[in-house]
């Protein structure tokens, strides 16, 4: 999809979610044919001409200034991630796509293997799982059994029915978070063919993904909570944090999970760590084999 089309769709989607009363625009009790603010109302709030704003929604962003984009972002009440996304759509960055396969320094794998009582893994820029410890496979997905080209969280969330079952009533929120993150990544790397191929695959194979993608939600993945209905140990509640790896440009971040001390989830993780026979990425690279749990 052309970036000018992305810009117009994003602006319209953010304008549609605002009600006149949210921003102090009188509606005079009139019935509106479309949801949200009208273009002329948004232009007035942003302090730009209606014609200029219409050109932006049509995708004509040549020469648009930072100040104008900031004013529109304030009028649309964009959050930080959305604000940055608007700037990237108007002025697309040029980035070199990540190398394939990504380079993994041995100390990073050693770090993962040293974490024995909590899931930990490293992802690349396409939600691709580059390296993982044994508990990641035991808790979420047995990644050693997944074809390498489908070893992404996006594939597992939207196309793996077993993993959907494991996510249970948390699947919708996890799926929306994943889609919003892919939107965030597409703004950072608009010309990355591998990222676009991933998005195209998910749009073609998952009606739910197509619907969520059309909502244009944008957010980075920084922290949160995973809730898993595990077939062996029951419900797991695992807060997680993401750590960036600035010295490794081909990698995206390190994901670390930890159960609350003394909680049933912590006890369940210890049980899995002692009994699971799932493989880590290091085991897989070394050619180890083990029966599946």
Core attributes:
293 residues, 11% strand, XRE family transcriptional regulator, five-stranded antiparallel sheet, Beta-Lactamase, elongated, alpha+beta, Lambda_DNA-bd_dom_sf, disordered C terminus
Principal-axes geometry comes out as elongated
Total beta-strand segments: 5
Low-confidence stretches: 289-293
Query: What portion of residues belong to β-strands?
Result: 5-15%
Plain-language structure description:
The model is unreliable at 289-293 (pLDDT under 50). The longest helix has 18 residues, at 171-188. It contains 14 helices and five strands. It has 293 residues and is an alpha+beta fold. It has two domains: 3-90, lambda repressor-like DNA-binding domains (434 Repressor (Amino-terminal Domain), Orthogonal Bundle), CATH 1.10.260.40; 106-285, 2-Layer Sandwich (Beta-Lactamase). The two termini are 43 Å apart. The chain is elongated and about 65 Å long. The chain has helices at residues 3-16, 39-46, 50-57, 66-76, 80-90, 106-114, 134-139, 153-159, 161-167, 171-188, 193-205, 207-214, 264-275, 281-285, and strands spanning 120-123, 129-132, 223-230, 234-244, 253-257. It has a five-stranded antiparallel β-sheet. A hairpin with a 5-residue loop joins strand 1 (120-123) and strand 2. InterPro entries: Cro/C1-type_HTH, Lambda_DNA-bd_dom_sf, MLTR_LBD. Residues 36-83 form the HTH cro/C1-type domain. This is XRE family transcriptional regulator. Residues 263-293 are annotated as: Disordered.
């Amino acid at each position: 999809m052309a970036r000018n089309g992305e810009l117009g769709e994003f602006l319209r989607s953010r304008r549609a979610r605002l009600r006149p009363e949210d921003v102090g625009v009188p509606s005079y009790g009139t019935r509106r044919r479309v949801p949200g603010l009208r273009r002329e109302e948004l232009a007035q709030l942003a302090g730009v001409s209606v014609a200029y704003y219409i050109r932006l929604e049509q995708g004509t962003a040549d020469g648009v200034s930072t100040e104008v984009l900031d004013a529109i972002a304030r009028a649309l009440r964009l959050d930080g991630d959305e604000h940055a996304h608007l700037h990237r759509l108007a002025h697309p960055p040029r980035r070199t796509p990540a190398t394939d396969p990504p380079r993994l320094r041995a100390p990073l794998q050693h770090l993962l293997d040293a974490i024995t009582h909590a899931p930990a893994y490293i992802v690349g820029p396409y939600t691709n799982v580059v390296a993982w410890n044994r508990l990641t496979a035991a808790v979420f997905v047995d990644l050693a059994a997944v074809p390498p080209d489908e070893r992404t969280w996006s594939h597992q969330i939207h196309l793996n029915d077993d993993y959907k079952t494991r996510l249970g009533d948390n699947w919708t929120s996890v799926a929306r978070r994943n889609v919003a993150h892919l939107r965030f990544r597409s703004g950072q790397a608009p010309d990355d063919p591998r990222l676009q191929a991933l998005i195209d695959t998910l749009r073609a194979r998952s009606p739910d993904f197509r619907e969520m993608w059309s909502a244009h939600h944008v957010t980075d993945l920084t922290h949160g909570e995973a809730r898993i209905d595990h077939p062996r140990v029951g419900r797991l509640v695992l807060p997680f944090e993401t750590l960036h790896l600035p010295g490794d440009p081909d990698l995206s971040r390190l994901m670390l999970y930890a159960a609350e001390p003394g909680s049933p989830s912590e006890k369940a993780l210890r049980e899995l760590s002692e009994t699971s026979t799932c493989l880590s990425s290091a085991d897989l690279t070394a050619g180890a084999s083990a029966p599946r749990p």
